[in-house]
């Protein structure tokens, strides 16, 4: 399955909807979107990965790159993910300590609101 | 099942094909369904790393992947032709506890190897000036799964 990307803003939060496979072939498209969003002043990103079928280290690299970019603007990049097979790769690489990972968009929005 | 060999040019689009082939043969060889996701990810990581290395050093050379069952184990070997010294150096830069450090986000080969090590039941990495060979294996049914 190819990669589908969409995004919309709610208050200060930009929600990025990702569907399909994030690998060495498709990850550049996600990277371009994240760079574009940051360049346009969106510094608080929430990446919804609930419809992601596959994620490899190239995809992790893109997310880490996005996090570095938003942090340079005192922003945030957090994730929504409950799929065990996706969470496993975050655990193996130690990235569960780096990203805020939430069970739902609502839960992430609530946490984001508390941090305002 | 006899060994299946696949060679592909160093294009990112072919990595998905390699993943699909590996998963199909793993299933056929009798690897448990619960482990197939790990096979898919580990083979994808090894092939992605090889593709990136070839694109840097030898984009015209093919990457080879061998899949076989051997005494009840499903074994995958990914072989590339890119000198692995530089990649070894890059991997040395990665600190897994500091992924936001100096590593450019386009080069995650260190993560790739870490992921493979975390997923495969048994992994051997053989770097050399002529290329890198990554061999990994998982338990499979002794004679593969019968298919009717």
TrEMBL record, chain A:
Q: Name one Pfam family in it.
A: STAS
The record's function comment reads: Positive regulator of sigma-B activity. Non-phosphorylated RsbV binds to RsbW, preventing its association with sigma-B. When phosphorylated, releases RsbW, which is then free to complex with and inactivate sigma-B.
Look up and give the organism this protein is from.
Streptosporangium album
Looking at the record, the residues that make up the STAS domain are 3-112
> Which portions of this protein are annotated as coiled-coil regions?
none
Query: According to its UniProt record, which protein family does this protein belong to?
Result: Belongs to the anti-sigma-factor antagonist family.
Return the protein name: Anti-sigma factor antagonist
Q: Where is the signal peptide?
A: none
TrEMBL record, chain B:
Per its UniProt entry, which superkingdom is the organism in?
Bacteria
Question: What are the entry keywords?
Answer: Kinase, Serine/threonine-protein kinase, Transferase
- Chain ranges of the Histidine kinase/HSP90-like ATPase domain: 8-138
UniProt keyword annotation of tRNA processing present: no
The protein's matches in CDD domains, at most eight in alphabetical order, are given as:
HATPase_RsbW-like (cd16936)
Molecular-function annotations in GO = protein serine/threonine kinase activity
Q: Which InterPro entries match?
A: Anti-sigma-factor_SerPK, HATPase_C_sf, HATPase_dom
Question: Which Gene3D superfamilies has this protein been placed in?
Answer: Histidine kinase-like ATPase, C-terminal domain (3.30.565.10)
Q: Quote the protein name from its UniProt record.
A: Anti-sigma regulatory factor (Ser/Thr protein kinase)
* Species annotation: Streptosporangium sandarakinum
The organism's taxonomy opens as: Bacteria, Bacillati, Actinomycetota, Actinomycetes, Streptosporangiales
